[in-house]
Amino acid sequence: MVSISFQLSDELVEQAETSGLLTNEGITELLRAELERKAVRAETEQMMQQLQAAAHAEFGDMTEAEFLAMVNEEVKSVRAEVYAEKQAQQKPKSNS
């Protein structure tokens, strides 16, 4: 076990004490949460790099404007499909 001391402003100490953070359990929880956050961030950054590489392989060099235009067109297409499906479901069936 390790003992650590910090120099903190009185205001921060007061807020942390009020929130129950200046306890062994509180500091432990904060450190674990921060370690988890950093691990998730690193994983997310790795996935983004893989996604960027895949997009580059699929679409080549695109400007941000070109990419956004392509995404907007795809969104419009999907919305049109969803709208058409809803319209088809709402048509009353005729009793012939």
Give me some keywords for this one.
single chain; 96 residues; mainly alpha; 2 domains; 3 helices; 75% helix; elongated
Helix content: over 70%
User: Could you say how many structural domains there are in total?
Assistant: 2
Report low-confidence residues grouped into runs of 5 or more: none
Mean pLDDT: 92
Q: What proportion of the residues form beta strands (DSSP E)? A: under 5%
Specify the structural class. Answer: mainly alpha
If helices are DSSP runs of H or I spanning 4 or more residues, what is the number of helices? Answer: 3
Largest sheet: none
Order of helices and strands: HHH
Q: Termini separation (Å)?
A: 83 Å
Q: Which outline best applies?
A: elongated
Radius of gyration from the alpha-carbon trace, in angstroms: 27 Å
Number of strands: 0
Secondary-structure map with pairings?
Layout: H1 10-18, H2 24-59, H3 64-90
Walk me through the structure:
By secondary structure, this protein is mainly α. The protein folds into two domains: 9-59; 61-90. Helices cover 75% and strands 0% of the residues. It is built from three helices and no strands. The protein has helices at 10-18, 24-59, 64-90.
